[in-house]
Amino acid sequence: MKTRPRVAAWLLRQFVGGPMRDSVIGDIEEQFARGGSSTWYWRQVLPAILFGLKADLCERPFAVIGSVILTSAVSIVWVELTSSFYGVLYQWLSPSIDSSFVLFEFLVPFGGGTCLTWCLLAALAGRVTARLTDRNRAVLIGVLLTQITLSLWLTRDFWLYGAFTTTVSARLWVLNYLWAATCLVGMPLSTLVGGRWFPGQPLGLRPDS
Length: 209
Fold this sequence. Notes:
Number of strands: 0
Low-confidence stretches: 198-209
Helix content: over 70%
Strand content: under 5%
Order of helices and strands: HHHHHHHHH
Structural class: mainly alpha
Distance between the termini: 20 Å
Mean pLDDT: 77
Radius of gyration: 21 Å
């Protein structure tokens, strides 16, 4: 018995949507079982995902637009609030920073863990979106792209300037890189985790999918 490409099969199951989802997946699986190659299987995945996203988008276009706007607004407000709180906390603890290297590393290069709270918000956005728009991948993808855009915006100074500076120590540079990577990778990934892998089958998928 032929084995399906695991990554392609996972993408097919997770991201194909639309009212014809089960039929599309069933047809691909059946044709593969009849003699399709792994290359052929891969070639079916992207069109199937795009077809499902188009169907979901046509079904709920205003939900996609609304989710993107709401996610952007809430995320920006949350980022500004946590950044302001970090600024106040930093000023309050600044007399102790010079005498505590651990405190310095956490508060200065890693932003006091603010990026971790941004990831939590991204996960919540994915969770709420999935619960309110059952089975609609287009809405979740819209929120995901929003988080990617926001994470790029938040880390723009590092990628434009910080990554090329030679005036900081290697240890501090690594911590700055960790902060930037947490934003850039962590926020979109948290959106996916919140939208798909929290309990309760948030996307309306069958238990065996």
